[in-house]
Amino acid sequence: MRDHSKKKYWTLRYTLLNATYFAAFCALHAYAAVYLLAHGFSNTEVGILLAVANITSAFLQPLVAGIIDKQGWLTNRRFILIAVLSIIAGALLLLFIPDIKAAIFVIYAFIYMVQFVYQPIMIALCFEYQRAGCDIYFGLARGLGSAGFAVTSALIGSAIEKNGVSVLLFVTIAMMVISAVVILTFVKPGQSGENALPDENASEMADEGAKKDAAGPEKTAGEDKAHNNIVDFAKTYPAFMLFMVATVFFFFSHNMINDFMIQIVRSLGGAETVLGYAGFLQAILELPVMALIGFLYKKISVNKMLVFSGASFFIKILILVFAVHLSGLFISQFCQLFAYALFVPASAYYVSTTMGEYDQVKGQAYINSAITVGGVFSNLISGVILDRLGVKDMLIAGSIVCFVGVIIGFVAMTRLSHRKAEGA
To answer: Per-domain residue ranges for the chain?
Structure first.
């Protein structure tokens, strides 16, 4: 028998994990340029730091996922706890060390990288616990995570103007402490340890739309085995791997906007408070789409959703190219409804329904690796363009790259096989 006394709290727990993660993500990632510029970094140096952090996380994500997929000591839950404690330690160091750029570079890059590495592990954690009979409404929990980002962004901009950039570190520490407490409660029903087996009477996944991808292949008994070699993985999931190339292009433009949003805002006449409101609008718009993903999934195939999300990334940055007032910035933020807000749950469900059980953590990690590789190229290129040519030229470059990604994504999702049979 399942532990029904705990059943109704799983979505709440997972929501808290997401809300605190993305509140800290707002402080560490959305305001990274604000923090670093305040400590004497140039735009180019900011770009280099974020690129180093991104490329490190891009390598580490599939490596960590491969270890977790082997189902040994390192589990999703344990890795998240390790990551959270590491971020707390790094943020505390930044509060107390002397204002030395080299030290700030190393520590900030480390905690920025660690937070990216454990993002796909959180997604994998959800599906792991769903398979064990825990009713978690992924779309709602992830959407409320974005609400956590939104509320933090709305409040933190004015707080920085009044109290300085140290506010970002205090917010990060507070949110990570709550995350640590929450992840300690993640013990599967009827189990005292980490390795719970699915209950024989486990209910269906709370989000019915996530059970089956109409365009994807059915899983059959004996098909599930780990593909830890990237070549084998790519041969087994060709559509996914080409779409990861498109994802790199999408997130080149997405990271360009987010990492250098303060410069975009200033070019349109705003400051940190406006940056906070823009971040709030962008993040709060993610909630309805993510919360309704199960309904959308029943009406539209996940493949089409992914293609549509890519096109929305392009429209979002194109609007900024032609913006001359802050109103253009806010109009662009509305595209978040169909860009990032659709991409995140759609890509998670694509992995959970298309890939074998022992490839799912890697699949989520490859998505985040593609996102972070896009961030690497964006960080390296955007800061240089910004310093030498300005905001408008940076946005034009991002638009061109994103458009190429839309074409690649369309080919991947409509022309290639989603899962090839073994030996095919």
So the answer is: 4-188+228-415
Contacts of 102 (CB under 8 A, 6+ apart): none
pLDDT above 80: residue 41: yes
Confirm or reject CATH 1.20.1250.20 for domain 4-188+228-415, answering yes or no: yes
Show the tokens assigned to 282: 């962008």
Instruction: Give per-residue pLDDT as tens, 104-132.
Output: 999 999 999 999 888 888 888 888 888 88
Q: What is the mean pLDDT of residues 42-63?
A: 84
Contact yes or no for 34/262 (Cβ under 8 A): yes
Amino acid at 314: F
- Looking at residue 89, its amino acid is A
Q: How far is CA 23 from CA 97, 105, 328, in A?
A: 24, 22, 26
